[in-house]
Amino acid sequence: MDLAYLGMVLVVILVSMTLHEAMHAFMGYFLGDDTAKAEGRLTLNPLKHIDPFMTLLLPLLLAMLGLPIFGGARPVPFNPQRVRHGEWGAAFVALAGPLTNLFLAFLAFGVGVVSGVITSGGLIQNTLVGQIISLVVLVNLGFFVFNMLPLPPLDGSRVLYALAPEGVRRGMEWIERYGVMVVFIIIMIGQAAIGRIMTFATNGIIQFFCMIFGV
User: Fold this and answer.
1) Quick check: 131 and 108 in contact, CB under 8 A?
2) DSSP 3-state assignment of 124?
3) Are 176 and 183 in contact (CB under 8 A)?
4) One of 21, 39, 87, 166 is an active-site residue; which one?
5) d(Cα 71, Cα 42) in Å, to the nearest integer?
6) Is the pTM of this model over 0.85?
7) Is 176 an annotated catalytic residue?
């Protein structure tokens, strides 16, 4: 794997994760909480959002190993008590990030189809443009699927907060206090299972895209 490819991976990761985190901040602000703005996170500056391990080292390592690429960034702070619509408002803030990644993947896939880079069955031509489109689709789908796992502090857990009884919420809050450490342990222990989930979900979404665009 050459350095040019890793450079493309890095650029796609930085753009994708910056938009992911910025949309968390913008949604929180839209729903009445200015915590992210006060801490300088209501921005498209990637330096404000990068986590050295989750944003850079982990995704690049996965890319070098040929595994599904996923990762995260520094969590955008928000105060659930200040967000309109209670737990559902907090869920909207959380979902704004991964749904942005899903939209980016969908948009890139559509560009690939229209430009002829993506052909029947979702096959992508092995050209420079094809490589870039493939990276945008796969990296963003990886971020979407991983962050939608219902495990604190990942974004998908916020949907559980809105649905779960009080006792379960308190347990999730206890887990969430350990943040990235919990995610790191889960990755180390369950990397094989996570890889299978990521591959299955990503392939399913790509097939759905193929159906929408008729390829």
Assistant:
1) no
2) strand
3) no
4) 21
5) 20
6) yes
7) no
